[in-house]
Amino acid sequence: MKKDEKHFDEWSKSYSGVTFVGPYFLNYLFRELIKEIKGENFKILDLGTGDAKLLKAIAKVNPKNKFIGIDFSEGMLKQAKNNFNKGEFIKTSMEEKLPFKAKTINYVVSSTAIHHVKNKDQLFSEIFRILKENGKLLVIDQSDKEDLEYKKLKKRLKREKPTFWKNYSKSFIKTERESIKELKKFKIKHPREYHLSPFSIKKKLESKGFSEVKIVPTPKFFVIYTATKK
Length: 230
Ligand SMILES: C[S@@+](CC[C@H](N)C(=O)[O-])C[C@H]1O[C@@H](n2cnc3c(N)ncnc32)[C@H](O)[C@@H]1O
Hints:
Layout: H1 2-15, H2 23-34, E1 43-47, H3 53-61, E2 66-71, H4 74-83, E3 87-91, E4 105-111, H5 120-130, E5 131-142, H6 148-160, H7 168-184, H8 198-207, E6 211-217, E7 222-228
Parallel strand pairs: 1-2, 1-4, 2-3, 4-5
Antiparallel strand pairs: 5-7, 6-7
The structure holds S-adenosylmethionine (SAM).
S-adenosylmethionine binds near residues 48, 53, 73 and 94.
């Protein structure tokens, strides 16, 4: 685990400069999640917060909430504090018991981080435990495994030509190239990834008690998940 933390510490030095994800990608994906967050005076927790881009974007729309970010990389947390001064940041691993009491969080969000977690069963149980009733989980994550159901869902969406897919691929390919160049500079190996197919994630979430688990495909390998604790 230490090696993975080091990788992110190293990456954190340039993380806000050459962004891992491009502006279109961010606008598009974050918009999909942010529109789900309704109301004020809520506790919003970001898992694997990095430099807190997602929390900052949410705060622009819903400033009267409490924002908490967790990450195991000291370097990333330093960037988070510099980037977003309205947040509370905690150094902890998503592989551990989450440091929050049961039923205390309204929204758990996460962007491109959960695929680094090996024990997703434990993480999903923990998220379920800390969410309040009617609390929501909103996630964007990568998946290099597409199951048949997911492929069908993606195909259907492609046929419908949704406007929110417009420009996504072009913008993403550009930033993908940039981020590969960026990662090549590192002496430390890329951290471990534990991808699951989107529908296996859905099944796992449902097995923990989540309802209304929804999958929204993107044209590339990012997937949006939303789920509610009823
Ligand atoms: C690809 S970055 C995404 C950062 C940010 N959410 C974003 O969208 O830009 C993955 C983040 O997850 C964090 N991370 C990875 N594995 C973790 C773990 N087991 N516990 C806590 N944080 C972790 C990394 O330190 C890094 O900040």
